[in-house]
């Protein structure tokens, strides 16, 4: 046992969409050849867990949103649709990485990453209390996690890749409301910018260069294998601060 490594042997609930689960269609991919994660894509979660001999409860699913459309039966692949209640009681760490697909379900959405866009999801306001808006779903989920996992180390990964910057700002706002630490993958004074950043403070040329280096390729702008490895190091550092 490594008593100097705070992450060693810990259990981590990794929650997110395809930017967490991995989507390498049309491009190069790598999987672990042996060990507990044999056959799994080398995404940031499994890379971090492998380095620190962590156990992973993998709850990430491509196309998953944080919120639910208010019209019943239109869409069900939402984290707030009960998935957050399946997090194991004994997890030590919980990370949440959402926003891209909620932005694809907004009114007048301009596109998607190939996932189901059925059902409208509004951004909402910080005071919303049900899971049918982006803000409201965050409020529902964070209240539950704080109440039912009071000793878990919870962190939010502020999603790059959303259609508008409203989702980055909303995620940061709810993180501050509930006192949950966050790391902004759109880039800030503490964190390198990943591709598809919506942060208006960064220049277009920097964003172009990141896109060229980090996307899978062609029309698939999900993070490639090298992007997952790159971001895994500062996401790991973030975990150590929780």
Automatic annotation (TrEMBL):
Q: Which InterPro entries match?
A: SGNH_hydro_sf
SUPFAM superfamilies, alphabetized: SGNH hydrolase (SSF52266)
**Identification of the protein by name:** GDSL-type esterase/lipase family protein
| Organism the protein comes from | Anthropogastromicrobium aceti
């Amino acid at each position: 046992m490594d008593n100097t490594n705070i992450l060693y042997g810990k259990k981590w609930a990794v929650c997110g969409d395809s930017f967490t689960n991995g989507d390498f269609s049309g491009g190069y991919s790598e999987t672990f050849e042996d060990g507990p994660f044999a056959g799994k894509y080398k995404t940031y979660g499994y890379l971090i867990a492998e380095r620190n001999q962590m156990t992973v409860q993998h709850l990430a699913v491509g196309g998953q949103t944080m919120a639910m459309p208010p019209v019943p039966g239109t869409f069900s692949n939402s984290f707030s649709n009960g998935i957050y209640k399946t997090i194991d009681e004994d997890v030590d760490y919980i990370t949440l990485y959402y926003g891209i697909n909620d932005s694809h379900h907004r009114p007048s959405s301009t596109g998607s990453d190939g996932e189901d866009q059925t059902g409208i999801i509004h951004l909402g306001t910080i005071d919303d209390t049900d899971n049918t808006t982006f803000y409201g779903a965050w409020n529902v989920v964070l209240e539950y996690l704080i109440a039912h996992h009071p000793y878990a180390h919870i962190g939010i990964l502020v999603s790059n890749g959303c259609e508008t910057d409203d989702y980055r700002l909303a995620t940061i706002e709810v993180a501050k409301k509930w006192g949950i630490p966050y790391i902004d993958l759109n880039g800030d004074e503490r964190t390198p910018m990943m591709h598809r950043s919506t942060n208006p403070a960064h220049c277009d040329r920097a964003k172009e260069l990141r896109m060229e280096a980090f996307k899978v390729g062609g029309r698939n702008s999900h993070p490639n294998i090298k992007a997952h490895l790159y971001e895994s190091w500062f996401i790991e550092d973030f975990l150590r601060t929780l």
